[in-house]
């Protein structure tokens, strides 16, 4: 199963099917918690009221910190989609841009085409979205919101005789690691409310490391203090459970990129393989580069008040659980170095441009 819930920001062990490869995670020693300075980028926009002031100001937290409840967004999904569509159009209409932004504009157009094709092929009611709050699936989500605006507001020959109201929420799944960072959990809660995700959380709880299991913690990792006593579930099991309760879902958008482990041979539309539950995986951001991901998210106004997970500003470049994620050592500010310090002595993730270095903070 592909990444990004199954996360695109995951590490795949060897000897897996292409489905498992996109979902799997390795393990490293337990990392330090993100600092209290972690904040997302949040210019004022239409969805600001969806996030409590306390959550907007602080997206990191100490281990075991309770996640603040997030009020439902009073702005309807139709207006949120129109707002995000306007942001995306500003990027696409930008002129006299640098080469990275020019490539990003083309990537956005291609991603929108893939999503439009999926909507025409399956219909909104049969589509879901895999979301874990990471940078790749945030790009996917924002582009999907823009595409939904055009899909439900522009005339379509297919819908001439069909009365289709704008949906009120977006079906989605979050296959969580057994040891999530509070900062990630808080951002997922805030952003899923802001963007009207009907997000089903299914926590995975695999046994100790084994090549046949995904997202395993090291044997030496202490148990998460709030881990509920649930049956062991891999990402595959999580998706099987999700689909068993949502039998009308035929395809799922996922944020896997070709530079992810074992993503090299994936295609934009690819059915699950191996012993995964049967559904179509749709990969709208498959061919995006790291520099393009950040060019999109950091385009003025793109992420709005919701921002992105603040851990990226502290030197984390790929997010998993606490047992398999550390700050990227290649971003550490050396003594005497004149460099931007995003927090804790590390440069922000968006200063990294080499795709091959992105996962240096993951095993």
Automatic annotation (TrEMBL):
Residues 127-325 form the Phosphoadenosine phosphosulphate reductase domain. The keyword Cell membrane does not apply. One of its GO terms (biological process) is FAD biosynthetic process. It catalyses: FMN + ATP + H(+) = FAD + diphosphate. InterPro entries: PAPS_reduct_dom, Rossmann-like_a/b/a_fold. The keyword ATP-binding applies. Pathway: Cofactor biosynthesis; FAD biosynthesis; FAD from FMN: step 1/1. Residues 1-48, 203-228 are annotated as: Disordered. It holds the Pfam family PAPS_reduct. Residues 7-25 have a biased composition (Polar residues). Its EC number is 2.7.7.2. Coiled coil: none annotated. PANTHER family: FAD SYNTHASE, FAD SYNTHETASE-RELATED FMN ADENYLYLTRANSFERASE. This is FAD synthase. It comes from Cyphellophora attinorum. The lineage of its organism: Eukaryota, Fungi, Dikarya, Ascomycota, Pezizomycotina.
């Amino acid at each position: 199963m592909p990444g990004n819930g199954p996360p695109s920001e995951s590490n795949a062990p060897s000897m897996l099917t292409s489905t498992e490869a996109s979902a799997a995670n390795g393990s490293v020693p337990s990392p330090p918690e993100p600092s209290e300075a972690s904040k997302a980028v949040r210019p004022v926009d239409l969805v600001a009221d969806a996030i409590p002031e306390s959550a907007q100001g602080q997206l990191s937290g100490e281990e075991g910190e309770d996640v603040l409840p997030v009020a439902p967004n009073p702005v309807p999904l139709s207006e949120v989609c129109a707002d995000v569509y306007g942001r995306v159009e500003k990027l696409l209409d930008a002129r006299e841009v640098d080469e990275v932004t020019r490539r990003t504009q083309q990537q956005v157009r291609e991603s929108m085409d893939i999503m439009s094709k999926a909507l025409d092929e399956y219909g909104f009611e049969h589509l879901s979205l895999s979301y874990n709050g990471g940078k790749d699936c945030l790009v996917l989500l924002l582009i999907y919101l823009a595409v939904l605006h055009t899909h439900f507001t522009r005339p379509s020959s297919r819908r001439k005789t069909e009365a289709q109201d704008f949906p009120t929420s977006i079906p989605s799944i979050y296959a969580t690691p057994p040891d999530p960072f509070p900062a990630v959990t808080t951002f997922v809660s805030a952003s899923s409310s802001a963007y009207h995700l009907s997000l089903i959380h299914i926590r995975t709880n695999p046994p100790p490391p084994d090549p046949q299991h995904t997202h395993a913690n090291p044997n030496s990792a202490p148990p998460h203090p709030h881990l509920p006593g649930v049956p062991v579930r891999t990402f595959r099991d999580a998706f099987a459970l999700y689909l068993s309760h949502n039998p009308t879902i035929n395809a799922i958008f996922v944020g896997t990129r070709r530079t992810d482990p074992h993503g090299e041979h994936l295609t934009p539309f690819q059915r699950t393989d191996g012993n995964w539950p049967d559904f179509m995986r749709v990969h709208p951001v498959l061919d995006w580069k790291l520099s393009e991901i950040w060019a999109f998210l950091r385009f003025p106004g793109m992420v709005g008040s919701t921002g992105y997970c603040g851990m990226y500003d502290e030197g984390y470049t790929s997010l998993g659980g606490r047992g398999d994620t550390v700050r990227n050592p290649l971003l550490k500010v050396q003594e005497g170095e004149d460099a931007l310090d995003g927090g804790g002595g590390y440069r922000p993730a968006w200063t990294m441009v080499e795709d091959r270095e992105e996962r240096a903070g993951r095993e």
